[in-house]
Predict the structure.
Amino acid sequence: MKTLSATRRLTRALLREPLDRPPVWLMRQAGRYLPEYRAVREQAGGFLEMIRRPEHAAEVTLQPVRRFGLDAAILFSDILIPLEAMGMELVFDEHGPSLPRPVRTRADIERLRVPLPGESMGYVGEALRFVRRDLPDSTSLLGFCGAPLTLASYAIEGGTGKSFAELRKLMYHHEADFRALMEKLARTTALHLAYQVEQGADAVVLFDTWASALGREDYVRYALPYSRQALEGLPTGVPRVVFAGASDHLLDDLSTLPAEALAIDHRTSLDRAFRRYGARPPPQGTLDPAALLATPEEVHRRVTALLAEVAGRPGHVLGLGHGVMKETDPACVAAFVAAAREYRP
Ligand code: 1CP
């Protein structure tokens, strides 16, 4: 079994130790807003090529850690990679991700494999090992997966959902087929998370971006049990973070998941979330990523105000409510990190 490094600030926060300042990392901290990322992307020839070449994936994972001194690296990959390993065609172009042959029927679902990650996504493990080798010992390494519902939305809709009509049709009219798909996705996710831990991830994040598409009743009935299944499969002692965007209406239910932290987005007040859920997985976050388009001074001010609101409650990890936008000035990310480093409760 894995032993947790007591020296890693993020791990300590997830174990709810009191700290002199909160750990900090950002969703999409590697990305097009960094010139050094754009240079690797140019060299690699594309986004998926970068993910599949461990030396490129490791390099872009490490770039923001080197530049900003973040407390965690998050592996450069994508939540949609396991869908490809399950047998779906996956394309990334300037419009974002798409799956040209979505799953709509029982036969489509039956054709999907539950892949063994070491065989079909070995480049993920190799990239994690490369990153761990070059990462300062005090820095955590995060693995991640998409939650079954979010993965199902891409698999069924064939890309980014708008109304999620196809998802709902399968869910409401062919419930057994929908559940068969969710079951396969939950098993795939559990295996993929466990594989990343085996290959060096200290903690994992389950991204349920499209939880926001469902109302509470549907989420509890059709999605929550599969997220639970995905998280329960991990070895004990590995901290689990659940992220659900724009899901204030689901926090009561999400907080019942077996997780050590609940990453909320900027639409929810952290203070209120701490009061309400702090004893269960503590909330973490959360500045609006759009605030990073302001001046570095303004970013610094907002982070300091946010940390004053949290008032050093154990378990807090500073982050964004969604990914860093490509228009962001790296100086604003530097100000975000500096404000966290300078803060004392
Ligand atoms: O070259 C580029 O800039 C492409 C943009 C990009 C990046 C940087 C995509 C396309 N994916 C990624 C990497 C990525 N995706 C990471 C890497 C680690 C990091 O630095 O944070 C992670 C954790 C993800 C997770 C991810 N991918 C999610 C869940 C979190 C979220 O954004 O809500 C989702 C929904 C995706 C799908 C996806 N991949 C890429 C895009 C543009 C999208 C979203 C498109 C959509 O809205 O459906």
Summary: The radius of gyration is 19 Å. Residues 214 and 223 are 9 Å apart (CA to CA).
